[in-house]
Amino acid sequence: MATPAVAHGSGETHERFDRLAHETFEGAILLKGGFAVLEAAAGLMLWLIGPTPILKLIARINAVHPAQHGDWLVTTLLHAAASFSVQAEHFFAIYLIAHGAVKLVLVLGLFLRKRWAYPTSIVVTAMFVVYQMWRFDMTHGLGLLALSVFDTILIALIWREWRRLPARKVA
User: Where in the sequence is the signal peptide annotated (predicted)?
Assistant: First the structure.
């Protein structure tokens, strides 16, 4: 038989873990929502102004703060923006807008505790993880791996929050 001190301590630990898990969930979906807004805005900018102003901005940033040993990111962005076709431009713009909008709708659904948002977010995020891991297999980009780990943890947190929703009343 457990002593009251042990049972009480165990309950406090469980409560703290629950609170930490919930706050981590909220922080993670807030982060996802912020990136979703940025992603949709980038797609809209690409659609409206095209890559040329973006190319000029990157070149200006590189001129003011030149990389000492050749900045891979700047070089890659300059090359990508310079070689954009109109078709690629439209594809990436639509992709960024749609991808950002879908994630934003899911994040809003999760914040509003809408039941449909939990399983939908799990499925959509799992699809992103599969795609990211497929891309990682081809590119070996550590950013994709880190994003996949973040998304996998997010799936677990969404699942946990979904299970903790109050039972739906049947009329």
Answer: none
d(CA 1, CA 7): 10
Output the pTM of the full model: 0.71
Helix (H, G, I), strand (E, B) or coil at 158: helix
Angle at which helices 4-49 and 51-64 cross, to 10°? 110
To the nearest 10 degrees (0 to 180), the angle between helices 72-82 and 51-64 is: 150
- pLDDT digits over 55-64, tens only? 677 677 667 6
Do 103 and 28 form a contact (C-beta atoms < 8 A)? no
pLDDT value, residue 3: 44
- The answer to whether residues 74 and 93 touch, using CB atoms and an 8 Å cutoff, is no
Tokens at 47, concatenated: 């659609």
